């Protein structure tokens, strides 16, 4: 082992002057590390004892038949971040190396998937090349392949066919993100668990493209050009294991029909959804997280029964829409509710009733005043630990804060005084944030904090110079 360590250092620094025969003499060489050098050509011959070779981050343009060929113990080869083209790779690059499991050829200049890849591979990295086409049968012998990374290439639907991936019977992870696909490809293998299709130009999902992929759990389709009407209603039929679907940053004008009924996480943020009908979410019984932030939802277009079936929902994000009123009929199972950056000026009577599991509510950057919230609303939230009302129009600290509260965000409001009784009902509070209000030194009763033994952060800070602020006339009274 000591001899090998000495040879590895020697190879790193003086390889440019070392004859290929020097490696043949190392009959027990198992691990060769020559990454991060300036090699332009790989050694013509490496010993058959080799187990792993790392030539990453060089300037390689040429590999030879006996560089990696006829190495029965070879398990991993790292060739990423080089200058390899298909012309620099021999046709039978891994002949006689039937134990190779990991091959990385990422960040080169390959335009076509290499021929005659060893059937023993279980992980293949080809990302960040210039791949435009996958030849017919290129993957047909790779029955052991579990992970295939093809992201950041130039692949289009025309550069592959419905049999391109069909023989990859062990494939679990396929990454085709950041290519030029316009349609979800067909012929995907049944055992696929994770499918990356984000950052393409996908406009449609055919009815039969995914239905055979019965083990699919994660489907990532964000940053595409999908519209709801271009997603076939049967697209997700039979996908009983599919629990995470990302469709954010598309062109969806409504919640697509036929979404997987056992989905747990559904990301629909940054679309153009303008309406939530009574039955748009009715079949998604198992959802635990739903993100509809930064769409075009308005209060009149959100049906009061839209969430009625989501009895397991734990996290709901409706931020960045045009809501004027907190929606009624929100699931009582919620633990986190975010409706920041809307136009909320009302929390109607009973809107928070029964939410005994709610731990965090974010209502920052709205138009709420003290009289916008029905009396006792916060007190009903017996599990609440974080209340964020920053960036609203409050003139006083709410008087009905729950005993469970730990963090209270009231910065950027119009609060002008902190009375002695302000925090009598919140003995567990750890953080109070009051920057950028209208507080003066004599308006803060220090005794109001005296009994708060758990208080760790009291941020009154800058922005509380009442004399410099205007417009007290429109403040409502307690």
UniProtKB/TrEMBL annotation:
InterPro entries for this protein:
Leu-rich_rpt (IPR001611), Leu-rich_rpt_typical-subtyp (IPR003591), LRR_5 (IPR026906), SLRP (IPR050333)
Coiled-coil region: none
Highest taxon in the source lineage: Eukaryota
- Which residue positions does the secretion signal occupy? 1-16
Zinc recorded as keyword? no
Q: Work out whether the entry's keyword set contains Repeat.
A: yes
What are its GO cellular component terms?
extracellular space
The cross-references to SMART domains, in alphabetical order and at most eight, read: LRR_BAC, LRR_SD22, LRR_TYP
Record's keyword terms, sorted: Leucine-rich repeat, Repeat, Signal
Q: What is this protein called?
A: Podocan
